[in-house]
Amino acid sequence: MQLAKNIVVVGAGFAGVYATKKLAKRFKSNPDVTITLIDRHSYFTYLTQLHEVATERVQPDAVKYDLERLFHHAKNVQLVTDNVTAIDKENKQVHGEHSTYDFDSLIISMGGEPNDFGTPGVKENGFTLWSMEDAIALRDHIGDVIRRGAAEQDPKKRKALLTLVVCGSGFTGAETVGELIEYREVLAKENRLDPSEIKVILVEAAPTIINMLDRTNAGHAENFLKKNDIEIRTSSMITQVNPDTVEIKDQSPIATNTLIWTAGVKTNHTADEFGIEAGRGGRLITNKYLQAQGFEDKSIYVAGDDANATEEGAERAVPQTAQEAEQEALIVAHNVAEDINGATNYKEFKDKNMGFTVSFGSKYGIAQVFGGKRFRGRFATLMKHGSNLLYFMRIASMYYTWKYFMDEFFNVENGRTVFGYNTSRRSNVLWSLPLRLYFGIALFIDGLAKMNGDSSWLVMGHPGFGIWELILGCLIFFGLATWCANFIVIICFFIFLHSWATVWVLFVAFALMNGSGRSFGLDLWFVPWLQKTLGKWRYGTQRSIYRK
Fold first, then answer.
1. Closest CA relative to residue 55, chosen from 192, 176, 160, 212
2. Is 451 helix (H, G, I), strand (E, B) or coil?
3. Of 99, 156, 381, 392, which has the most beta carbons under 10 Å away?
4. DSSP of 346-362, one letter per residue?
5. For the chain, how long is the longest CA-to-CA vector?
């Protein structure tokens, strides 16, 4: 009889979620293996999109992915909301604030946290972008200082309030600056300001910016930022952050009430207490199989920002990016499965970096992919969306793939999508009400005529179809399940014979699929009820805390 075994995954980030998905699938048919996923939140945060929340391009729930929905099919995954405090490596136990969790194999993927390099005042007076709480706090702060700045009449105070400083030109810093270019226009309009009054300054300690890109692409990025009135200060090391100024070595201080710190990342401070040797930035040292150094016999693995993942023969560890975290997740999932099965056919970590995509707002991006090929503009932005969508496909979440489309292309204010207002304009469906009423009556009358044996003027088909015309006509007229009713009309258009004189039916049905039933229609109540009911049936009830 096989003994029950438990795999514990600490941290529901890019690596933790992906590794848990792979392990759940691997042991789907083995009732003796359980995977316990522990995180301090009951949701996965898409960290690389937090700058969009901070600048109000998307709402917070657009980057929060409920773990219950992600793992609703994985019956062998147990979700736990807890703060991990220690790891007993000898007794193979994970200690949390609320419980203790035994493990046969352990994956540490707690993610990183901002690295302020000991710079005075950053924690007290700066803003970071490393959690949902960070993004919401920054969003609220920016809205507040711009409102106060717009009403301030003292020139010096006004300038300081309307000056936003971003420290660090890595991907997070660069993308935050790009979002601020667009957000500046929105804020200016809301507060009756000239956009040029809102000043954005990018401060970088190194001589060049966005150093993960080659110099050609970095040059294009720099030109784009300067073209959009972003002040760039290179070779500028911040020495102290005060409530109303940022001090820079050998330069005059910048008067500002807003410093956004994106200058670096280090391993989650909790991992410092795990007793595993650490390298640069506190990243836990691993071997080529991503096993924690010194504890290879304990089946302890590290992935994501916590791992000092280094390909054999390489001089330094791979960068702490989502792409690398996904690759590491695949390796640790395979190797953990080997341990559970009592085998040793381990996979070595290989850096398979496909390149980088950076977005500067919703419409302009730069891609450096497939061995150095360069793309710029909207196409590069679409590639960035593609890489994000690829993650949801890898973790097999069609629900969140669909939600990403809606949040990034349709449910967006101020036309801040790669397609502008072409997809994000929220139409007032009230204007389609007369058309909906007319179309519903037309189908109803045509159905009656068909049932009575009279000539039909809409659908040329079997008389028995009359009853369906009556039903569809009533649904469309009263605005109940309008999308489905019109979709059926479209299908019927291609099944039954029509004359060219009635081809307008096809286009009317397409037009009425745009939520027309929510204006003086029953869909105003029916659709939200249906979404709630189906969501609860398929995914269960979302909770703020998951317990063992």
1. 176
2. helix
3. 381
4. PPPP-----EEEEEETT
5. 92
Residue listed under structure tokens 């995914």:
539
Measured at the CA of 82, the angle between CA 65 and CA 338, to 5 degrees, comes to: 80
Number of other CB atoms surrounding residue 297 within 10 Å: 9
Beta bridge partners of 218: none
460: confidence class by pLDDT, cuts 50, 70, 90: low
Q: What is the DSSP string of 86-124?
A: EEETTTTEEEESS-EEE-SEEEE---EEE--TT-TTHHH
Q: What pLDDT, in 10s, does the model give residues 346-377?
A: 999 998 888 889 999 999 999 999 888 999 99
Question: What is the distance between the alpha carbons of residues 235 and 204, in angstroms, rounded to a whole number?
Answer: 6
Query: Per residue in 274-325, pLDDT tens?
Result: 989 988 888 999 999 999 999 999 999 999 999 999 988 888 889 888 999 9
Cα–Cα distance, 55 to 416 (Å, whole number): 11
Short-list 120, 87, 122, 81, CA closest to 106: 87
Among 444, 120, 378, smallest CA distance to 261 is for: 120
Distance, in Å, from the CA atom of 509 to the CA atom of 432, rounded to the nearest integer, reads 11
Question: ∠ CA 77-32-290 to the nearest 5 degrees?
Answer: 65
- Asked if 248 and 239 touch (Cβ cutoff 8 Å), the reply is yes
Instruction: Check if the beta carbon of residue 242 is closer than 8 Å to that of residue 121.
Output: yes
Give the Cα separation of 153 and 453 in Å (integer).
79
Residue type, 207: P
Amino acid making up residue 201: I
- Please state the length of the chain: 548
- C-alpha span between 115 and 122 (Å, rounded): 10
Q: Helix, strand, coil proportions of the chain in percent (round to 5)? A: 45, 20, 35
Bridge partner list, 85 = none
Tell me the mean pLDDT in the region 455-465. 63
Tokens encoding 200? 């954005």
- From residue 14, alpha-carbon distances to 112, 394, 484 in Å are 12, 11, 36
In 220-282, the DSSP E strands lie at 230-233, 238-241, 245-248, 254-255, 258-261, 265-267
